């Protein structure tokens, strides 16, 4: 089968969107996922295309010249003090540039609030033809698949589904069987990376690996292939693999190339050895 690979912005966060797109073409990615919703985090570059006309034009030109597509934008956080309607300019620009998906996650324990906000987010996204992928994050308020299912099943919007990040899947101790009752059309993309077998017990160490120390696919203990196989052959494999040491060793371009090379090799080997019906 022909797997589709996307380069997630967190892997190469210092690259601007057009720089990402040109390099993704050179390296061999099919898509990019851009962080065009500015969160104001320490050291985070601002790639808000809705407020930076030149960056928008450069991004549009890069897409036209390369044929690489924007698959998704991030991050439409659900949190207190931020109305989801503030994301509309980013959604409008994403739709103009051909993106089809947006990533969201939930960072408040107020269930009534986050269910209302997430439903409103999905409704607004639908106006722009965007599918909302809810990601559970090990140190967030919605931190496992069970809690994500509750959100999806409660809001009942047809343009929403699940974004599994293999690191969070492993570290939130989700079982493979928990994926069995989810229709495959609810999985449009998956964040893939590997990680160590040990699961930290404190938030700081969880965050460190998540943002700075992920492994190349096949180098760690996460059953990535078994997870992805549950989602069907059309799921986009988005390489979210920030690792500051790898970047210091190789530079961003070589790191991004190694992300793709190791992932492709991993899936080629496992697809060749798989005996399920859609692999044969």
TrEMBL record:
Pfam families documented for this protein: AP_endonuc_2
Source taxon at top rank: Bacteria
Example GO molecular function: isomerase activity
Sorted UniProt keywords: Isomerase
Matches recorded under InterPro entries: IolE/XylAMocC-like, Xyl_isomerase-like_sf, Xyl_isomerase-like_TIM-brl
Domain Xylose isomerase-like TIM barrel: 23-248
Entry protein name: Sugar phosphate isomerase/epimerase
Organism: Acetomicrobium mobile (strain ATCC BAA-54 / DSM 13181 / JCM 12221 / NGA)
